[in-house]
Amino acid sequence: MLRPRLRSALAVVVVAGCAPAVQTATGDVAPAAPATARQLVDRMHEDWTGKWYETLEFRQLNTTYTSVGEQTSEWLERQRVPKRLRIDFVSPQPNGSGLLYRGDSAYTFDAGTPTGAAPQRNPLLLLTADVYALPPDSTLATLATLGVDTTQIRHDEWGGRPVIVMGAAAGDSTSTQLWVDAERMLLLRLVWAQTAGSRTVVTDYHLTYQDVGGFAVPQEIVFLRRGRPYFRERYVDVRPNVPLDSALFDPAQWARGAPAR
């Protein structure tokens, strides 16, 4: 598992309670660093209130790394914040195939035909968009169901930036945990441990962002297992706050929204 270069001064467990606010060189008072899970989620929500997109449309260019080489695919994604994400598989799957996240459920479709529905929460959807729109209590409750130990919170460093880590102690690279940029309040890394039968599968997500019309939108997400990338997604043709028909997110009307080819 990849590990960030640690800065010893930051690699400490933050005790409960809030650090004092810091006065900047301009005389402004910077907000205190979150010291509890509640403070972190509150800060993520408050910092972006009124500054987040309500809808988003983009094309996702995927690369899957296999033992025999790379495979590419393209998806069209349309999102309404919170808890709505429609993924249409543009290529190479047949038209009308895709995946719909609505509320806390996921629906699958093959060539326009429904193939399944099940309760499912998408942690990336929660932590890159919904957290900025949902009440903090709702976000915290979902994090608990995803296996995040909200009693564990500390400061660290990731990619040369200060981060706040929730869910794991320093040196723990396998417990479910989120790494949030301490200044921008954006998710930079997610480690998600899922139970699959008798074994645990740990996926490590690394995120970078792009500015689109003043909105922070993921630019690339790399999925790693055992320290090696196996999937990469890149967002292009990004359009925030476009009109999106509510029927797009209705599983009973899935076929109406399939993109033309």
What do these coordinates show?
A hairpin with a 5-residue loop joins strand 12 (177-181) and strand 13 (187-196). This protein is mostly beta strands and 261 residues long. The protein has a single domain (27-257), classed as Lipoprotein localisation LolA/LolB/LppX (outer membrane lipoprotein receptor (LolB), chain A), CATH 2.50.20.10. Helix 1 crosses helix 3. The protein has a 14-stranded antiparallel β-sheet. A two-stranded antiparallel sheet has the order 2-3. It has three helices and 16 strands.
Descriptive terms for the model:
mainly beta; 261 residues; disordered N terminus; globular; outer membrane lipoprotein receptor (LolB), chain A; 16 strands; 14-stranded antiparallel beta sheet; two-stranded antiparallel ribbon; 10% helix
CATH topology: outer membrane lipoprotein receptor (LolB), chain A
**Succession of helices and strands:** EEEHEEEEEEHHEEEEEEE
Helix count from the secondary structure assignment: 3
In total, the number of domains comes to: 1
Name the CATH superfamily assignment. Answer: Lipoprotein localisation LolA/LolB/LppX
The biggest sheet amounts to: 14 strands, antiparallel
Structure classification: mainly beta
Topology:
Blueprint (H helix, E strand, L loop, with lengths): L11 E2 L8 E2 L5 E2 L6 H11 L7 E12 L2 E12 L3 E8 L6 E5 L2 E6 L2 E7 L3 H6 L7 H10 L7 E6 L2 E6 L10 E5 L5 E10 L2 E14 L2 E11 L2 E13 L21
Antiparallel strand pairs: 1-10, 2-3, 4-5, 4-16, 5-6, 6-7, 7-8, 8-9, 10-11, 11-12, 12-13, 13-14, 14-15, 15-16
Helix pairs in contact: 1-3
